[in-house]
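Weekly modeling sync, notes
Attendees: S.R. (lead), two postdocs, one rotation student

Agenda item 3: backlog of single-chain predictions. S.R. asked that every request posted to the team notebook include the full sequence so nobody has to chase files. The rotation student volunteered to paste the first one in as an example of the format we agreed on. Action items at the bottom.

Example entry:
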Amino acid sequence: MKTFLNGLGLILPTALVLYILIWILKTTENFFGEVILFVLPKQYYITGLGLIAGIMIVFLVGLLLKFWIVQKIRDFFETLIDKMPLVNTLYGAIKDFFNFFSNLKNKENDIVVLVSLGALDAKIMGFITSRDLERFKFLDMEEPVVVYFQMSYQVGGYSLFIPKKNITFIDIKTEDALGFIMTAGISSSRKYDKKENKNEQS
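Predicted structure, as returned to the notebook:
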């Protein structure tokens, strides 16, 4: 039985990752393939052209965003979206989400924190997502920051306003901390050492 479970423990996560990867590739191929068929006769279409076109378009968009005029066009469309109820909320949330997690490697030691749960004598790990809270002066807090607490094996989480004096920074790479939390501590056996007990210096 143990041998069977060991094999299952390898096959299931590998199969899930492959399934998600294949789904992404097939979706990209089908979408951009349909676009290509508008201008290219079907007999000349080769499987994989849609995927190649998708990758090239994403790369090209990223390259064009380095130019001032393209940035202005993007800002113009984002201004239009901001005026659309519900659409602006969804667009902004998705954009902010991807921006935050796409920059994990650049945020290794400055956002992972522990927050004490006094009554339980416990600590919970979270991520500082916002420090600039001038518009929330009404909170009547001393130097508040927003800390995001990811739920294990879930997409969602919670964001709380917490005074800086109540958080402790820990020496863990953000992506490692996220993986640790997402799997309820099961995915990693690394030893994480807490930094010296100190608060963030302004």
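Discussion: group reviewed the output briefly. The chain has a mean pLDDT of 78.
Action items: rotation student to repeat for the remaining queue; S.R. to check formatting next week.
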